[in-house]
Amino acid sequence: MTERTERIVDAPVTVGDQLLNRMAQDIFSGVLPPGIKIVEVDLAARYEVSRATLRETIARLEERRLVLRTPHAGVRVAQLSRKEVVEMFVVREALEGMACRLAALNATDVQIEALRQHAEFEEAGMRAYSELADKTRAVELANEVNPAYGKKDFHVMIANFSGVALLETLIQSDINRLTRLYRFRDLEGRGHRALIEHNRIVEAIAERDADMAELAGRRHIAGLRKEFERLTETDSDWLKLCA
């Protein structure tokens, strides 16, 4: 099956595509954090585009639920309730587990090698991240070093290699995008654990152990959910903890 990636990270062609790519990356990296109001005049100046182009891009982000429009309140970067985020992690855990199981059964040797290479790139990226003085530019710098960085997502690759197009579509939907908005500032600590978990998933898939692959995939997402629940349990203003 031909590898697919999210439209927001395809190679930009038009000014609108370039802006969509940049704004999506800024949302995912926390440069535009959850809940922040979209002020057209400020963002048009920031991204050096016309307000017409910005409006078109905002509409495209709205379609992906990365920004939300509220009557009389304008447009803001998507901000979910704590309960909604937890529920999305629960659903994502089931989907990711199934994707890992099917990848163990259906992925080709070439695809498994691609997963290994991606895990190696993540490890190199984490080492580079740990040395950064300005963590806010981590994603931007990673893209400068390796343009393929933003074009591939470990979980989307596994879904693609599962051989089930519908599962891939579901994992690339709102659930995957929106849970990525709620990452925490301690990316280094969680990042090292995620690397270990990703490698366990890859090894289970390489061994063609469907049961272990599903278990490793579910445990990985469950770990993210549990960390989210722990960090937000006693903090009413939990959004300030996000990256």
UniProtKB/TrEMBL annotation:
InterPro entries assigned to the protein according to its UniProt record, in alphabetical order: GntR_C, TF_FadR/GntR_C, Tscrpt_reg_HTH_GntR, WH-like_DNA-bd_sf, WH_DNA-bd_sf
One Pfam family, short name: FCD
Cleaved signal peptide residues: none
Keyword presence, Transcription: yes
SMART domains linked: FCD (SM00895), HTH_GNTR (SM00345)
Domain HTH gntR-type: 13-80
Domain of life: Bacteria
Keywords: DNA-binding, Transcription, Transcription regulation
Name listed for the protein in its UniProt record: FCD domain-containing protein
